[in-house]
């Protein structure tokens, strides 16, 4: 089969094995052999990565100023369409590679930036492996292009082209549409998560002011599908408003600026509220820089300096408060900083820390300038901000005194372990586990059932303090929390040191009911706000106790879901009988306390048979908002959230 491009030249199509073809096959074969090297995992995260990769290309086109709308559709068979109204990927023959541009993009690793030098690219960070990787890992992929008044398409299977670039005749407008189906031979998880995709797409829309992103999920329970549109003329200001959620702002107007400098394009939005947490999120070329970097350093330096300068100058400082710390000026702050950099250098463990040194100064200067102007022009807001920071400084001082006092007695860093802790005998932290157990009775069973050589038990009494609603001095005076901090050993917040971790697995074990879920959320909130690194480094786990015991005589099974209960019931009844008949009994566990120590060991604590969920943070900004919604002051959004998301809260993939 052959096709003609717009110049009338014949294009190479499928079937022929040129030297280039062999190179292509080798390249994409490498991707199929070791997919994790390119997309991180072949489970859910890697699956979603495919979509981000394709969307990133369309967003790059938007950043270059040629695209205003991107539509993402998940189809019933879990194939995905990403469609944009950009210029369309070029289809003419590349002068040296002798294949159409689109084919180059679809088959060459890291082809992304080669076409277009003078634009910001998402490349170099977490994403940016190129659409060819998506092609290689798809059972099939089709690309449809409209440009220069014509429609073109090409189809691939597992990265190998099935057709050449085919001219389909006249077409209007311009754009690119990529449809792909993730290959079941590669991925262990094939079903897309609506919330995961919608969060990322919403974030993309916030980060690219004016860009319209339409998200449709055709897989539906109701036959109608589900469509959402993300489009924010406010850009990062809209993002901050969204992240602030229901917390009360201290000043009505969001501080916002956008500026182009030689080193970087800088956009920033921030607002203070009456809460105690800091929510700062930074992005480079649309990539979340979880590990911070030079842009964040520049921002923090400028914020501390400008607020202190204003406080002194305006006479709002009393004598003692002439030095606010960085932590003081960031209490109750929601902030998003987004920079676009031509050649970003990403560093750090997860390649999410910006290394470009020139960006620090650029951000610092821009923030100094714009923030000073804002404070001068908005004296009421300025006063509220300074007063808030001053009160944070006082609270911190009070907490320090309380901590010093406590240290002298039995407290945090004295090395004296809490009395309720049943510690393990081994001292190598990498082998040790700490179970945080809801209630004294379950705690008792766990103590008797455990392997005491490496498993430690800390029973927690009732509900722990909600740290989302308390300031640090109050948090530290709570007994349950102090017991946890002492047992874990790392300290919290600025004092946190992972090297002092006493157990490499910290396992939350609560009842499988609403109260249990609440306590688990309280604990996760605590870790997220005070010891986030513990989550980030993968040390926090959730135990999975069984929901049912299905038994008949001496035969018994533990079921962890309804489906398993049915399955075991069938098995005990030789495939026919229903529950209740022929002596089959089902015991429903309402709490951990109903299991005897031996059962608790076998079902939930024995590494040979137990299931643990590792807690990870998929998206810091969204997780922070989620905790705020769940645990913050306002009651109404919390109710709404739990109703809307009960399903998602259960898998705890925050
Ligand atoms: C390179 C050059 C040109 C467009 C693109 C890449 C492009 C790539 C993708 C991927 C998804 N959507 C896209 N839209 C555009 C344009 C070159 C020109 O027209 O001068």
- Stretches where pLDDT is under 50 for at least 5 consecutive residues are 1-15, 112-117, 636-654
Do you know the CATH architecture of the largest domain? Answer: 2-Layer Sandwich
- Which range does the strand content fall in? 15-25%
CA radius of gyration is 28 Å
User: Helix coverage percent of residues?
Assistant: 25-40%
List of distinct ligands in this structure: 3-[3-(1H-pyrrolo[2,3-b]pyridin-5-yl)phenyl]propanoic acid
Number of helical elements: 20
Instruction: Provide the number of structural domains.
Output: 4
Biggest sheet descriptor: 9 strands, mixed
Account of the protein in words:
The protein has about 650 residues and is α+β, with helices and mostly antiparallel strands. The chain folds into 4 domains: about 20-230, Histidine kinase-like ATPase, C-terminal domain (Heat Shock Protein 90), CATH 3.30.565; about 235-405, Ribosomal Protein S5, domain 2 (2-Layer Sandwich), CATH 3.30.230.10; about 410-545 and about 615, Rossmann fold; about 545-590. Helices cover about 40% and strands about 20% of the residues. The protein is built from 20 helices and 24 strands. A hairpin with a 2-residue loop joins strand 21 and strand 22 (about 555-560). Helix 3 packs parallel to helix 6 (about 195-205), helix 8 runs parallel beside helix 10 and helix 15 (about 515-530) crosses helix 19 (about 620-630). The longest helix has 30 residues, at about 380-410. Mean pLDDT is about 85; it is low at about 1-15, about 110-115 and about 635-654. 3-[3-(1H-pyrrolo[2,3-b]pyridin-5-yl)phenyl]propanoic acid binds next to helix 3.
């Amino acid at each position: 089969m052959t096709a003609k491009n717009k110049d009338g030249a014949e294009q190479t199509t499928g079937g022929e094995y040129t030297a280039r073809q062999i190179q292509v096959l080798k390249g994409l074969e490498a991707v199929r052999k070791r997919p994790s090297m390119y997309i991180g995992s072949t489970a859910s995260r890697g699956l979603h990565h495919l979509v981000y990769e394709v969307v990133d290309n369309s967003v790059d086109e938007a950043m270059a100023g040629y695209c205003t709308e991107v539509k993402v559709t998940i189809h019933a068979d879990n194939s995905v369409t990403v469609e944009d109204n950009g210029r369309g990927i070029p289809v003419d023959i590349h002068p040296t590679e002798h294949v159409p541009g689109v084919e180059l993009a679809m088959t060459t690793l890291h082809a992304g930036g080669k076409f277009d030098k003078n634009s910001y690219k998402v490349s170099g960070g977490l994403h940016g492996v190129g659409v060819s990787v998506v092609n290689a890992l798809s059972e099939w992929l089709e690309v449809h292009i409209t440009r220069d008044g014509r429609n073109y398409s090409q189809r691939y299977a597992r990265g190998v082209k099935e057709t050449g670039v085919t001219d389909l005749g006249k077409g209007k407008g311009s754009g690119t549409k990529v449809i792909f189906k993730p290959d079941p031979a590669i991925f262990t998880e094939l079903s897309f998560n609506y919330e995961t995709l919608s969060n990322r797409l919403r974030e993309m829309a916030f980060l690219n002011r004016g860009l319209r992103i339409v998200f449709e999920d055709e897989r539906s329970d109701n036959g109608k599908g589900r469509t959402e549109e993300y489009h924010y003329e406010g850009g990062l200001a809209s993002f901050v408003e969204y992240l602030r959620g229901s917390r009360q702002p201290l000043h009505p107007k969001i501080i916002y600026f956008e500026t182009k400098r030689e080193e970087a394009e800088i956009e920033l939005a921030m607002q203070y509220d009456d809460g105690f947490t800091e929510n700062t999120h930074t992005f480079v070329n649309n990539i979340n820089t979880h590990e911070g970097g030079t842009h964040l350093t520049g921002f923090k330096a400028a914020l501390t300096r400008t607020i202190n300068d204003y406080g002194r100058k305006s006479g709002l400082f009393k004598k003692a408060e002439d030095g606010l710390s960085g932590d003081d000026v960031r209490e109750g702050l929601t902030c998003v900083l987004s920079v676009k950099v031509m050649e970003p250098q990403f560093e750090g463990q997860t390649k999410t820390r910006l290394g470009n040194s020139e960006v620090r100064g650029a951000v610092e200067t821009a923030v100094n300038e714009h923030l000073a102007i804002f404070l001068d022009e908005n004296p009421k807001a300025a006063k509220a901000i300074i007063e808030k920071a001053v009160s944070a400084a006082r609270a911190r001082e009070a907490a320090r005194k309380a901590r010093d006092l406590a240290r002298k007695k039995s407290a945090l860093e004295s090395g004296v372990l809490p009395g309720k802790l049943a510690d393990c005998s081994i001292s190598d932290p990498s082998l040790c586990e700490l179970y945080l157990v809801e209630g004294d009775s379950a705690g008792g069973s766990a103590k008797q059932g455990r392997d005491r050589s490496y498993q430690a038990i800390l029973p927690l009494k009732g509900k722990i303090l909600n740290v989302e609603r308390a300031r640090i001095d109050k948090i530290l005076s709570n007994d349950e929390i102090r017991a946890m901090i002492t047992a874990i050993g790392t300290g919290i917040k600025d004092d946190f040191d992972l090297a002092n971790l006493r157990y490499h697995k910290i396992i939350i074990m609560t009842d499988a009911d609403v109260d249990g879920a609440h306590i688990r959320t309280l604990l996760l909130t605590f870790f997220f706000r005070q010891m986030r690194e513990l989550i980030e480094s993968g040390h926090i786990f959730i135990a999975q106790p069984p929901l049912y015991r299905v038994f008949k005589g001496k035969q018994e099974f533990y079921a962890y879901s309804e489906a398993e209960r049915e399955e075991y019931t069938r098995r005990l009844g030789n495939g026919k009988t229903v529950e209740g008949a022929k002596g089959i009994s089902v015991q429903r566990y309402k709490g951990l306390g109903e299991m005897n120590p031996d059962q608790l060991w076998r079902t939930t604590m024995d590494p040979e048979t137990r299931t643990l969920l590792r807690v990870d943070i998929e998206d810091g900004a969204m997780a922070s908002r989620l905790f705020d919604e769940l645990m913050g002051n306002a009651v109404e959004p919390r109710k709404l959230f739990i109703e809307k998301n009960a399903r998602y809260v259960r898998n705890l993939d925050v």
